[in-house]
Amino acid sequence: MARIAVIGGDGIGPEVVGAGVRVLEAAARADSSLELEFERFPWGCEHYLKHGRMMPEDALETLSSFDAIYLGAVGWPSVPDHVSLWGLLLPIRRGFDQYVNLRPVRLLRGVGSPLAGRAQPDLLVVRENTEGEYSDAGGRLHRGTPHEIAVQESVFTRRGVERIVRYAYERARERRGLLTGATKSNGISVTMPFFDEIFREVGEEFPEVEASLMHADALAARLVLDPAAFDVIVGSNLLGDILSEITAAVCGAIGIAPSANLDPTGEHPSLFEPIHGSAPDIAGRGVANPAGAIWAASLMLDHLGHGEAASRVLGALEETLAGGVRTPDLGGDAGTEEVTRAVVRRLLF
Ligand code: NAI
Q1: What is the pLDDT of residue 20?
Q2: Can the keyword Ligase be found in this entry's annotation (predicted)?
Q3: CB under 6 Å to ligand 1: residues?
Q4: Could you count the other beta carbons within 10 Å of the beta carbon of residue 264?
Q5: Which of 34, 145, 199, 204 is a good FRET partner for 172, with 20 to 30 A between their CA atoms?
Q6: What 3-state class would DSSP assign to 67?
Q7: Helix or strand (DSSP H, E) at 316
Q8: How many folded domains does the chain comprise?
Q9: Pairs from 220-223 (Cβ < 8 Å, separation ≥ 24)
């Protein structure tokens, strides 16, 4: 029995994870070896407005007894984004040492891509998830004066870089044996050369992987022009964040892309989510694309050791989209409910 903590969050978050939970329940009904138990937690911006916190003080303790966390999205216009992010998502990622942010990218059948007619991408972006540029070390001086200064430090540790780079080499070895490290050592002259050095050092343990470093700006352009050239890409927290968003866009729409926040040691639960945000512009209208959340649910099943069920879920989603049941962001006219029902039907019958 796998116990899953469900945090819908804000905006379309609860709509899309609601869809994902129904799909997971259908997958479990179709497969007696798959036993899942869900517990929902109403945390997010509404919780913040009522209680002054995005989630209770003992939230991590509560979550630590679960096998995985399934999250929708957090953020709402009435709460500053840095408050919502630092109050929920980042404490979970850091508190549970989920140092790998994994974003698989593949063009699903039935999804149009700006790259139509060219070789299609099938790649993994591995983003460092606990340190780097997203640190809260820094501050502002002389606020409100013409001399105002803002300083923010990037924090790169040998342990942090080694472990993410090693994880990426391992994934590349299992796939097509090609690894690209995203760097920016031409402009960022201390931390990036440090990253590059460790990338090369760890590479000595993986002679079978063809590894190279590429400046993130050139890499971004190449991803748009020729994404099929890549297999695994590894980057720091900021560079990995931007590059994975580009790859998501190249694959059709932000609403279909999933991500996993992993503690590969298994000591803490890992977290699975669609990459999109709470989409206030379409929240409550029943048109949110549940594909990213359903693909994230498939990643979660895979992580929990149910690889076959994971493939079935992704297959059912892909057949649904290829069959023309698509939300408006993909050029269709189906709602969240219709897409969800179609995926559930394919799993059950
Ligand atoms: P967003 O991803 O919420 O929306 C960007 C655009 O994509 C919007 O036009 C939206 O309608 C569309 N979109 C997103 N997901 C969709 C889906 N599943 N189906 C159809 N259309 C979809 O990004 P935005 O507007 O920058 O952020 C809104 C809020 O979400 C902010 O508060 C932000 O901080 C938060 N956010 C949270 C994330 C998380 O929880 N991991 C990630 C990104 C943003």
Answers
A1: 98
A2: no
A3: 12, 16, 73-75, 81, 89, 254-255, 273, 276-282, 288-289, 292, 327, 329
A4: 17
A5: 34
A6: coil
A7: helix 307-322
A8: 2
A9: 220/246, 223/247, 223/250
Residues 345 and 241 in one domain: no
Question: For 47-71, what is each residue's pLDDT tens digit?
Answer: 999 999 999 999 999 999 999 999 9
How many angstroms separate the alpha carbon of residue 277 from the centre of ligand 1? Answer: 3
Radius of gyration of the chain (CA): 20
Question: pTM of the predicted model, to two decimals?
Answer: 0.92
What is the model's pLDDT at position 118?
67
User: Which of 207, 228, 251 is where one domain is finished?
Assistant: 251
State the distance from the centre of ligand 1 to the C-alpha of 75, rounded, in angstroms: 9
pLDDT at 116: 63
Residue numbers of the domain that contains 202 = 113-251
- Would you state the structure tokens that stand for residue 118, as one six-digit string? 């060219």
Structural domain includes residue 157: yes
User: What type of residue is 284?
Assistant: G
Residue 305 counted as domain residue: yes
Q: Give the burial string for 270-294 (b: 16+ CB within 10 Å, else e).
A: bbbbbbbbbbeebbeeebbbbbbbb
**Which amino acid makes up residue 208?**
E
Domain-located, residue 181: yes
Q: Tell me the per-residue pLDDT of 245-294, one tens digit each, with 9 for 90 and over.
A: 888 888 767 899 999 999 999 999 999 999 999 999 999 999 999 999 99
Atom 26 of ligand 1: nearest residue by CA position:
277
Q: Are 124 and 245 in a shared domain? A: yes
Give nearest CA residue, ligand 1 atom 22: 255
Same domain? For 266 and 247 the reply is: no
- State the ipTM, two decimals: 0.98
Q: Provide the pLDDT for residue 108.
A: 86
Whether residue 107 lies inside any domain: the answer is no
Read off φ and ψ for residue 180, nearest 5 degrees: -115, 125
- What stretches in the chain show pLDDT beneath 50? none
